[in-house]
Amino acid sequence: MVWQGRFGDAPLRVDLLPSGRIFATWSIRGKERRAVVDTVQQLEQRVLFQLMLGAGPSEDALAKAVIAAVQEGSEGLPDPTLSGPTKRKKRPGGARRGPPRSRRRR
User: Fold this and answer.
1) Which residues contact 4 (CB under 8 A, 6 or more apart)?
2) Backbone angles phi, psi at 96, to 5 degrees
3) Per-residue b/e over 50-62, b at no fewer than 16 CB within 10 Å?
4) HSE-CB for 67 with a 13 A CA cutoff
5) 82: phi then psi, degrees, rounded to nearest 5
6) Which of 8, 23, 66, 94 has the most neighbouring CB atoms within 10 Å?
7) Strand partners, 4
8) Could you report the per-residue pLDDT of 5-54, keeping only the tens digit for each?
9) pLDDT at 84 > cutoff 70
10) Residues 56, 9: contact at Cβ < 8 Å?
11) Does residue 90 come out as left (phi exceeding 0), alpha (psi in the -120 to 50 range) or beta?
């Protein structure tokens, strides 16, 4: 856990995954929300922006504290933006998932 506390009326918890990605959970009106993002900028756009709408400008210092805690905690972890998409192995013989195709289609 990197940071945990209340952001306006919403409880917020921010964690750093071993892969370097940022995991955030918060509750708004009884519904739990979750987000997994790669960068601090994405955290600001997807999570903190939503919470700032409900909390108001008085929580701007708190948003900066969350960002600082994430940046401090991410030191030494891999950068998730540098790892490319995972490569998938092709199946031998062109095998495909699912039921066999109908012979009438041809």
Assistant:
1) 11, 12, 13, 14
2) -125, 160
3) bbbeebeeebeeb
4) 16
5) -85, -25
6) 66
7) 13
8) 999 889 999 999 988 899 999 998 889 999 999 999 999 999 999 899 88
9) no
10) no
11) beta
Token pair of 22 as six digits:
């940022």
Taking the CA atoms of the chain, what radius of gyration do you get in angstroms?
A: 20
E strand or H helix at 42? helix 40-43
By 3-state DSSP, what share of the chain in percent is helix, strand and coil, each rounded to 5? 35, 25, 40
Residue in this structure with the two tokens 């909390």, named with its chain if needed: 55
Q: Which two tokens stand for residue 28?
A: 């708004």
24, 37 Cβ separation under 8 angstroms: yes
Torsional sign, CA 3, 64, 62, 50: negative
- How long a stretch of residues is the chain? 106
Dihedral in degrees, nearest 10, Cα atoms 48, 1, 20, 30 = -40
d(CA 3, CA 73): 9
